[in-house]
Amino acid sequence: MGWLPTLVFAATYLGMALGRVPGLKIDRSGIALLGLVALLATGQVTEIEAGAAIDVPTLLLLFALMIVSAQFHAAGFYDAVAARIAAAPGTHRHLLLLTVLTAGALSAVLANDIVVFAMTPIVAAGMRARGLDPRPCLLGLAGAANAGSAMTIIGNPQNILIGQVGGLDFWRFLAACGVPGLLSLGIVLVAVRLTWREQLDAPPAPPPPAPPPRADRWQTTKGLVAVVGLLALFATPLPREIGALVIAALLLLSRRMGSRAMIGAVDWHLLLLFACLFVVTQAFSATGLATAGMRWLADIGLLPDRLAVMAPLMLVASNTIGNVPATMLILSIWPVPPVGAMYGLAVLSTLAGNFLMVGSMANIIVVERAALAGTRLGFGDFARAGMPMTLASMALAMVWLWLGGWMAW
To answer: pTM of the entire structure?
Structure first.
């Protein structure tokens, strides 16, 4: 039956749920690496088998998209945008609106993790400089980054994986997931406004006299051209990962921005997490238990090809083991889901990430970066706005997927 791969698999995903090992300073990427090492050291998986289990095209696409996003980061684009939001005239509610719209739009076409990594400290500092509580805008930033990233096949890591595994078309994905993602931005705004009314009633101080920093216009233009080129290549028969690599390679050909800095901005921890989990889940799948489990679920009518099963499954899984590991787990034991179920998996797993602080990597990044900037976001702060925004946005997405005929109820 393969008890050792099963044990390693269970221990790895328990670590994903806990997020750490008690008494040790090890995160999810480190836990996944330990799982891989255990399989290699015990001979359950050979180096060749490990290499074959890794979905290289998915990793290449994810890497290339991170380079594109790093172009904007290095150009100072995110910094300038966040600073302009913080310095904008108007009420605290107006600043929240600008934060939500900007984060949602950027996360739809760029890696949402890098968007929140760059914007969080500047939004936090800017709000404090105007005598405002930064927490409502930071929660709006995290919620909008997740909701906006649900709209496209390149908005976040789990969507990238789903798109690659299913060979999904970029524009058809947008048609299925774009509307619930877009409407969810409004839900994020309303949820934060209702749950943080007292803080949002505080009048902001006037904007600082010094103008906000400006992004490097030429480097920002290069990034915009790269995004347009990327979308154009997605409409051609060229494999998506190859087209993205071509764009990334062209961005590295710069006389002003060092390739070391650009490549250094890539989230290598996330790529390592992906690579290790590919091997761990493949080793478990080889035991036959996953296939037997899917047959059992199908026999009792609990296969996640229906909204009534998929939605609660993703709500629980995303807020325990995280939406990226949860997506990888489902695709490893359910290798050929229907196209409509893939759309549902993408949008529901992403929106479910807003429920709790641990639901998505973007949330964790906002918490960690805000703490470094002097603002503490607690578990309760996230849950207070995250629970209603998640339940409302997931309900809306379920209705949309049902009305569009993508998934049965």
So the answer is: 0.83
What residue spans define the domains of the chain? 3-403
pLDDT exceeds 80 at position 178: yes
Distance from C-alpha of 331 to C-alpha of 208, rounded to nearest angstrom = 50
Query: How many CA atoms are closer than 13 Å to the CA of 191, on its beta-carbon side?
Result: 29
Q: Which residue has the tokens 């706005």?
A: 385
CB 266 within 8 A of CB 67: yes
Q: How far apart are CA 348 and CA 330, in angstroms?
A: 13
Token pair recorded at residue 341: 């179920």
- The whole-angstrom distance between residue 311's C-alpha and the CA centroid of its chain comes to 17
pLDDT tens-digit series, residues 116-175: 888 888 888 888 888 888 899 999 999 999 999 999 988 888 888 888 888 888 889 999
The mean predicted confidence, pLDDT, of the chain is: 85
Residue with tokens 């803080």, as numbered in its chain: 199
Measured from the Cβ of residue 246, the count of other Cβ atoms closer than 10 Å reads: 15
Terminal Cα distance for the chain, rounded: 35
